[in-house]
Design goal:
Radius of gyration: 20 Å
Shape: elongated
CATH topology of the largest domain: Rossmann fold
Helix content: 40-55%
Number of domains: 2
Largest sheet: 5 strands, parallel
Number of strands: 5
Number of helices: 9
CATH architecture of the largest domain: 3-Layer(aba) Sandwich
Strand content: 5-15%
Structural class: alpha/beta
């Protein structure tokens, strides 16, 4: 499923003043999927640290937050090499481990060559301001699929291009088609799971159930 945030992630990857990235958004909008796809396509390896699925990983952040120590321990636990410039280190559900959010500061200061990204929801309720690495992280926000992303997902790339283009160039016939698709989009919504459910059987009822 094409997500336009891919372009923002690529700019972050190639940025000369890159900082650890936090991808924010509501649950189920596709944060994990987007970063895993990005990591698998744009890096030689992806090191996934899922704090919600594997509670034992949180213990790594109880003590010393030195970036190289954390990387060394993660290599042992994940059984893979973490190589700056080649590996995307991805902290998923980072709100479940507030100390990992604090540790992003040390990755920025001590290992700026390593690409570090995190995904989280409701981060405002996780930490007070004194614990947050202000000025040492970057943020991107991911939302449900917009109308153009929805059109791409259902296989109508030309319609998506028309929506993203100059409205004055859309003919009345195409406008009528887009209006009908927009009505369907309003019913299905932009949550990826609902869109996928609709696509399986072209069933609005399936989308409603999701």
């Amino acid at each position: 499923m094409l997500r336009f945030i891919d372009n923002d992630l690529r700019r972050w990857q190639e940025g000369t003043r890159r900082k650890p990235l936090i991808l924010r958004g509501a649950r189920q909008v596709g944060k994990t999927w987007s970063l895993k796809e990005f990591g698998s396509k744009r890096f030689a390896s992806l090191a996934l640290v899922d704090f919600e699925r594997n509670h034992s990983l949180r213990k790594l952040f109880d003590g010393d937050l030195t970036a190289r120590r954390l990387c060394s321990d993660l290599e042992v636990i994940l059984q893979q090499k973490i190589t700056p410039g080649k590996t995307l280190l991805f902290f998923d559900e980072i709100q479940a481990c507030p100390r990992a959010i604090t540790a992003l500061r040390y990755f920025y200061e001590e290992m700026p060559e390593l690409h570090v990204a995190a995904a989280g929801s409701l981060l405002e309720f996780t930490l007070d301001e004194s614990s947050f690495p202000v000025g040492r992280v970057q943020f991107l926000n991911l939302y449900p699929l917009c109308f153009a992303e929805y059109l791409e997902a259902i296989g109508n790339a030309p319609a998506a291009a028309a929506v993203l283009g100059n409205p004055a160039e859309i003919s009345p016939a195409v406008h009528d088609l887009l209006r009908e698709e927009l009505k369907r989009y309003f019913f299905i919504g932009g949550m990826p799971a609902a869109v996928n459910a609709y696509l399986e059987n072209n069933s609005l009822r399936d989308a409603f159930e999701v």
